[in-house]
Give the backbone structure.
Amino acid sequence: MSEGMTRTALSLALFIVIASAAVLIGQAPGTAEFVVSVMSLAVGLIFAALVVLIARRGMK
C-alpha cells in the first residue's frame, strides 16, 4: 500500500470510529439505533486494524 493510500484509509477508519462513538453516546441501549452504532463502531475498529496490519506488512 502506498503511503497516501494508507493515510487515507486510516483517516476514513478513524472518522467512522469517532462518528459512531459520538452517536453512540446519545443512544438508549436496546434500541435499533444503538445496535447500528455499535456495529459501525466495530466495523471501523476492524477496518483500522486491517489497515495497520497491511501497512506494517508492507514495510517489511
Notes: The mean pLDDT is 92. The longest helix spans residues 32-59. The chain has one domain: 1-57.
